Every structure is written in structure tokens, then in C-alpha cells.
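Researcher: Structure for this, please.
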Amino acid sequence: MEQINKIELRGLVGYVRIQEVNQKKVAHFTVATSMAFNDRNGAAVIETQWHNVTAWEGKRIEGLDKLKKGDKVWLFGRIRYTKFTGSDNLEHNATDIIANRLTIIDDDDVFPCEM
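Model: Predicted structure, C-alpha cell format:
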């Protein structure tokens, strides 16, 4: 049986922090994705989700130093769940997206749908 942990996101960049680790750039940033729908009363609703993303500069991820708040991005990666104990001595859960392909989208870019 094939096991898959794969995610695709297209959204807007929020917070961005870029560091250098062992002479490689790594970006920690958030991406907002939105979904529009009508509730049961017919009123329009826009639901926004924020995703934490980590991307290491490499073959399919270039130009991390150009990444900024408000950029439109298209990324592929995997989901990582972690548990940690906070300074309050309570166990917390975190969900991150580890990007393995990242593209900053220009308004003029048109992308084919990938399935």
C-alpha cells in the first residue's frame, strides 16, 4: 500500500523570518488560504486558514531572500506534527508544512492545474 504525505497550498504570505543555518537559507513564514461559501442562510462567508511553513533553500526553492509579506505563493510539501513542552510545563501540539517546492507567483503568471 502506498503511503502519501503531500500538500499543495496557494495563498498569501504573512509573517516571514529568514535565517542562515550551515550556509543555507531557511525561511519560516505563514501562508493564508481562503475558501468562500454560503452558509445555510445563504450569506456569503470567507473562511481563512493560516499555515506555518518552513522552506530550506535548494534546487526547487530559490530566492528565499526575496520572500516578503503579501507575496502570492504556490508551494508543495508535507505536513509535520510535533509535540513540545512549553515554558508553562504544558504539552503543546504544532503543525508545520515543510515545503519542497516553492514559487512566488506574479499577477501575470498562469499555472496549469496539477493533479
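Researcher: Any notable elements?
Model: The chain has a mean pLDDT of 89. The two ends are 20 Å apart (CA to CA).
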